[in-house]
Amino acid sequence: QVQLVESGGGSVQAGGSLRLSCAASEYSYARYCMGWFRQAPGKEREGLAGIFIGSGYTYYADAVKGRFTISRDNAKNTLYLQMTGLKPEDTAMYYCAAEPIPCTPSNPAYYRTLGRGTQVTVSS
Q1: Coil, strand, or helix at residue 18?
Q2: Average pLDDT in the 26-30 region?
Q3: Element (H, E) at 96
Q4: How far apart are CA 124 and CA 80, in angstroms?
Q5: Whose CA is closest to 80, among 50, 108, 105?
Q6: Cβ(79)–Cβ(69) under 8 Å?
Q7: What gap in Å lies between CA 102 and CA 124, rounded to an integer?
């Protein structure tokens, strides 16, 4: 089973940018959908973006479309989430997640393999 380790979270002012990274352990990484979701205290998981690793097909939730970009580096088995135009309401714990095929990039909040998360805090 693939293991995921996130990095890149932190504190930033509104309007700023962060790039999250997710290193995947498994050589068959290309046979997965991977994505990002977030969870704020007292709230449900919110799927943000997903990608089918093999083809590169991507999905974005409306809340982040145009601000966040998901990408992958297959040579490094690493997934990224570039976040720009950050808002205080983006404050949450951000998780990388993976699901083996068959899968769809549109529901990363339901993927069954998760990283431990990385905190993103956006101040106004």
Answers
A1: strand
A2: 65
A3: strand 92-100
A4: 25
A5: 50
A6: no
A7: 41
Q: What is the pLDDT of residues 8-22, one digit of tens each?
A: 999 999 999 999 999
**Whole-number average pLDDT of the chain:** 93
Cα dihedral: 9, 10, 11, 17 (round 10): -50
Taking only the tens place, the pLDDT of each residue in 32-57 is 899 999 999 999 999 999 999 888 89
Residue 106, Cβ neighbours under 10 Å: how many? Answer: 17
Phi and psi, residue 45, nearest 5°? -60, 140
Residue 110 and residue 48: Cα distance in Å, rounded?
Answer: 12
Asked if 36 and 49 touch (Cβ cutoff 8 Å), the reply is yes
Q: Are 27 and 40 in contact (CB under 8 A)?
A: no
Q: Write down the residue that tokens 């205080």 correspond to.
A: 88
Tokens encoding 78: 């690493």
* Contact between residue 44 and residue 61 where contact means Cβ atoms under 8 Å apart: no
The strand pair at 118-123 and 10-13 is best described as parallel
3-class SS of residue 29:
helix
